[in-house]
Amino acid sequence: MSHEQSEFGANLVALRTIVYREVRRFMRIWPQTLLPPAITMVLYFVIFGNLIGRQIGDMDGFTYMEYIVPGLIMMSVITNAYGNVVSSFFGSKFQRSVEELMVSPVSPHTILIGYVTGGVLRGLAVGVIVTILSLFFTHLQVHHLGLTVLVVLLTATIFSLGGFVNAVFARNFDDISIIPTFVLTPLTYLGGVFYSITLLPPFWQTVSMANPVLHMVNAFRYGILGVSDIRIGTAIGFMLVATAVLYVLCVRLLVSGRGMRQ
Fold this sequence. Notes:
Layout: H1 3-28, H2 30-33, H3 35-56, H4 64-94, H5 97-103, H6 108-134, H7 145-169, H8 175-189, H9 202-208, H10 212-225, H11 232-256
């Protein structure tokens, strides 16, 4: 067996091990990782969809419940993909187990892909749960399956990578909650989850276009309902570029070893 084959085999084993550990981690504590977002989304369905939605009426030709469901699904995917990676990788830093990975003959790409895959799988798991729960409140008919799958995968990947960056720079447990609280939550709530930006004055419509979450939510909504406030090609292009840029940044951080020692 050549050196390249041996190295590839070692990295493959490491990747499977990291992914297995990440999945086992959030599945073992499912009452803390999968159940709370499901309960939260049910409350959104009941309060915003049923109670408030009756007063609002239709939006873009759909009932208010139908309109907000894609946004709520994306909200759950975003928060859980991000939260899984930032908490898991920072936990590894805090326990100093990440130092063993850094000195092992494992490629930085393998380490990064393993953690990101775990975040994506948790985001998708919660997204599937929320989608199933939404069927008790409304009827969903996927307009474009391929686009829907592509958007949700790209979104989960982007925020998993973002969570990794946050974990690298975090110095304590308080630091891993700053970005979700003061950046992620406002962007999500102002990202067109509960409304169409066509309801806003022209100036605020323009400002809203700078919100990356708006593009993700609308692209996903187009995949489900066939309606969108933005150009789908622009949204997909942005997500591809964001994924590439964040991936390169994360690999560079791993190679440099910055923030890996507590």
